[in-house]
Write a structure and sequence with these properties.
This protein is an all-alpha fold and 297 residues long. It has helices at 9-38, 44-66, 71-75, 78-100, 103-110, 113-124, 131-148, 160-177, 185-207, 216-239, 242-245, 251-264, 270-292. Helix content is 76%, strand content 0%.
Length: 297
């Protein structure tokens, strides 16, 4: 008698990617809320630093008390730090772009990541990528353009910053593929949070520390969700091919519309709604295609 499995690993990987994007959306909304309360763009580094202290502490407590792990040993694993270094570079270029460019332009360019994921997975991981999946990625990016609807998109050399961030995000995912197992997800997440905290701490020394007690409850919520975002992003790479989950990364736009409205009171435009529909159809097409060819159940 065959045992029934609720989700195949492919579908599970896609669901993990979407759960990660939902977590990051909630995190980003509360980070933005804290920065808005401070009314200073450069305060984003002290916000990230404070959030990182909370996230790293929660992960450390879990590893020591629940999993009985040795933090000194975890901190000595070189490969985790290399992967974490790519995460820091991703954050460095992303947050620098966020200071100097409008957020709509930053996110438009950052969403070139699924292109790089599909290309890198094809070139370096030897994953098979058919024309239909390439088409789904392109359609998803068209949906992003509808959502953001950038006006007067003239060339600016600063546009390279979020594109570089997207490339390092892809390299991070590629490096994660060779590292992650069922037992080290939290350890990798801990090193990621630890290194991001150190980076934001040094940036805070330069830009100044601006967080007050009024922002702490927002940052506590942000810390919890960024923790899950990091964890789901690591698990996604373990359970499914990168090229399969690439289109699901666009779901961050849909979640951003919903969470942005609920947390920040940002009302979605008609372009956002049209784009969200296009993005959703792109992701569903990838899942259906994989089911048709028998890769997922």
């Amino acid at each position: 008698m065959k045992s029934k499995v609720l989700f195949s690993t492919g579908v599970f990987g896609i669901l993990l990617m979407m759960a990660g994007q939902l977590s990051f959306s909630i995190n980003d909304s509360f980070v933005k809320l804290a920065v808005k309360e401070i009314s200073l763009n450069s305060s984003i580094f002290s916000v990230i630093f404070t959030r990182g202290l909370i996230t790293t502490s929660l992960l450390a407590i879990y590893l020591v008390i629940i999993e009985k792990k040795n933090l000194i040993h975890i901190l000595s694993i070189k490969s985790f730090h290399i992967r974490g270094f790519y995460e820091v570079l991703t954050a460095l270029f992303f947050f620098t772009a966020l200071i100097f460019l409008p957020i709509s332009e930053v996110y438009t360019l950052l969403m070139t990541n699924p292109f790089f994921v599909t290309i890198f997975a094809f070139l370096f991981l030897k994953e098979k990528v058919g024309m239909r999946r390439w088409s789904a990625v392109i359609v998803g990016f068209v949906g992003v353009i509808f959502v953001i609807s950038p006006q007067n998109f003239s060339f600016n050399y600063l546009f390279i910053l979020p594109i570089i961030s997207a490339i390092f995000l892809t390299i991070r995912d590629i490096s994660t593929k060779s590292l992650t197992t069922k037992t080290n997800n939290v350890e990798i997440t801990f090193i990621t949070a630890f290194l991001i905290t150190i980076f934001a701490g040094f940036a805070s020394l330069y830009f100044g520390y601006h967080v007050t007690i009024e922002q702490t409850h927002h940052l506590l919520i942000s810390s919890i969700f960024v923790l899950f975002g990091y964890l789901f992003s690591v698990m996604t790479v373990f359970y499914a091919p990168l090229s399969l989950t690439a289109s699901a990364r666009y779901s961050v736009i849909i979640f951003g519309i919903i969470i942005g409205y609920l947390v920040l009171g940002e009302v979605p435009s008609s372009n956002m709604i049209i784009g969200a529909i296009i993005i959703t159809m792109s992701g569903l097409f990838v899942i259906k295609r994989e089911k048709d060819i028998g890769k997922i159940n």
